[in-house]
Amino acid sequence: MAETADADREADRDGDREFRSVPLGEIETARSRHMWTRSAVHVSEGGDLVVTGEWDGTVTAREVDSDSLEARWTADHPDHAVGITTLSGDGTESDGDTAETVIVAGRGETGTIAAYDAATGERRWRYDTVDDLGEAVKDTVFYLPYVVALESGTDGDGNERLYAAARRYERDGETRQWHSTVYAFDPDGTVRWTYETDASPIAIDLDADGERLAVGYNRCMGDHDVGLVVLETASGDLAWTWDPGTEGDRRVGDVSFDGDSIAVSSHGDKRGYLLGPGGAERWRIDLAVETEIDGETLYAYPNHAYAADGRVTFVTGNTYAVESRETENRHPNEHRIATFDADGELAWDDEVRGFIHGLAADGETIVAPCAQNFRVRDPETHAVRRFDLESGPQRVDRLAGIATAAAVDGGTLAAIEEPVAYHDEGETRGEYALHMAPVE
């Protein structure tokens, strides 16, 4: 992959800050290394409502057109609020209209999925995934039940559905085990079907027709031994599976539908794939494969994928060394975003410079919230970066703290900033805040 933007070119893309911002309260300051997902943000379809989820369980809805960004409502979620989506209706009516519903995913003792009225914040229903996954066997965040992904959409019959993937990890000596469930819900919270495995799901995506649900599994160390599962949404039945065929338990980082194709970022071999129906390989690309530099074998995980309009975008993460935890070297393709055309040819690429917790996209607009680069510890990496699927880099909005979550829809962009203090500096940078901006 060719090197592209240098510091001067990147500076040319920086614009005057156009964010409107509001503080979110207090959160533990991040350090040099990345913390787990602690915040969530969602922009409703049409871009008129922004909902934030916080580590203390606070869920807040704000109207985009409000000059002060004053909260429409605030609710307390039973767990850490780490994922959000919306449904257009839940079968109930508010003031004569079908009520839009905010769905919140939790990480905590109960691993709760809950629905809140978008107009009032009233909780409409609650489902605790702990009943399926089992309780945490150790009081640490990594052992807690965790709803890792939400997806909503309409099936071929016009019925709205909610899909979720949840997991729990445990370890007994040398034995490590995952418990996971994929769910399909009706808007009123009724469970239509579940799909259970002993692997760790990391991402789900729904096809445009609402007929197939792709589930990416990151860690497979039990009986379930495939990285990608495609399910029939009507029944939860297995349609087909795919795997990179690599040794070890690392498999898939992300999945994204585009028509009858699925883009897959592979943690197994650090490549990007475009698959056709049944898992037929259309092409594969070396993204951050093992590369020897100064006597070390280095690699980086392709963590995110986004496919639309015949193009596929992948984002890679941190450098790691095969033989050691620490390294002074860096993989040449770490922290990069790259887009490929329908034939697998590189269309454009650019640096993102910091770790991306999650990619946000709406049509041709791609938003990358960039956090710290723990091997470099350069505050210039903290930014919200925008890209055009067709032409590449568009804008860089820098933050004092780290950008850890973003959402974009209906011409509205929202991002979460968290404070950070690098371990060898002693200075706290940034604040816990919501930032919003229009997108043309």
UniProtKB/TrEMBL annotation:
Using the UniProt annotation, give all residue ranges assigned to the region (Disordered). Answer: 1-20
Superkingdom of the source species:
Archaea
Residues in domain Pyrrolo-quinoline quinone repeat?
A: 64-242
User: Matching InterPro entries, A to Z?
Assistant: PQQ_b-propeller_rpt (IPR018391), PQQ_rpt_dom (IPR002372), Quinoprotein_ADH-like_sf (IPR011047), WD40/YVTN_repeat-like_dom_sf (IPR015943)
Question: Where does the UniProt annotation place the signal sequence?
Answer: none
A matching Pfam family: PQQ_2
From the Swiss-Prot or TrEMBL record, give the protein name.
Answer: Pyrrolo-quinoline quinone
Organism encoding this protein: Haloterrigena turkmenica (strain ATCC 51198 / DSM 5511 / JCM 9101 / NCIMB 13204 / VKM B-1734 / 4k) (Halococcus turkmenicus)
State the taxonomy lineage.
Answer: Archaea, Methanobacteriati, Methanobacteriota, Stenosarchaea group, Halobacteria
